[in-house]
């Protein structure tokens, strides 16, 4: 029974992901970007930048094959209210946990599944963690981020 529930959840997530990718109302990249602006450097560079700017850090731990990770990236992280808050208070960095850098980060910050979001201070101390796609979507991530001090 537990296996069938797990299968149903996974199937639902993949269905949502497939619909989201094929949805013709999705914004194209040429229409501009809103939402969370991710730092393009390494995890260590993100910590240094956060310390310099006196900000917190959001780490998006993902893999390239993870459907829910892709859903977060295309449908949740693009939320304007979430982006406005996160961009003003956090340095956000996405780390592919199957890359060379990601494997090193995973040694310090192991995860139970993907996606995992770590909310941490600029010293790398984890303050809050979210595993999977939050049921409340962008609103739940925003509420969690607002509680991080």
Automatic annotation (TrEMBL):
Q: Which residues form the signal peptide?
A: 1-20
The residues covered by the Thioredoxin domain are 10-149
Q: Which SUPFAM superfamilies match?
A: Thioredoxin-like
Concerning CDD domains, the annotation shows: TRX_family (cd02947)
Task: Show the stretches that span the lipid bilayer.
Answer: none
Q: One Pfam family of this protein, by short name?
A: Thioredoxin_7
Q: Which UniProt keywords apply?
A: Redox-active center, Signal
> What is the official name of this protein in its record?
Thioredoxin family protein
Q: Which organism is it from?
A: Flectobacillus roseus
């Amino acid at each position: 029974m537990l296996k069938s529930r797990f299968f149903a959840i996974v199937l639902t997530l993949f269905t949502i992901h497939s619909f989201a990718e094929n949805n013709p109302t999705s914004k194209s990249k040429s229409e501009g970007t809103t939402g969370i602006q991710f730092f393009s450097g390494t995890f260590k560079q993100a910590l240094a930048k956060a310390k310099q700017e006196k900000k917190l850090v959001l780490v998006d731990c993902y893999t390239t094959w993870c459907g829910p990770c892709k859903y977060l990236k295309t449908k949740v992280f693009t939320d304007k209210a979430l982006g406005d808050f996160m961009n003003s208070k956090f340095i956000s960095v996405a780390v592919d946990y199957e890359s060379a850098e990601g494997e090193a980060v995973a040694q310090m910050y192991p995860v139970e599944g993907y996606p995992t979001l770590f909310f941490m201070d600029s010293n790398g101390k984890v303050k809050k963690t979210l595993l999977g796609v939050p049921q409340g979507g962008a609103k739940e991530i925003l509420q969690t981020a607002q509680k991080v001090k």
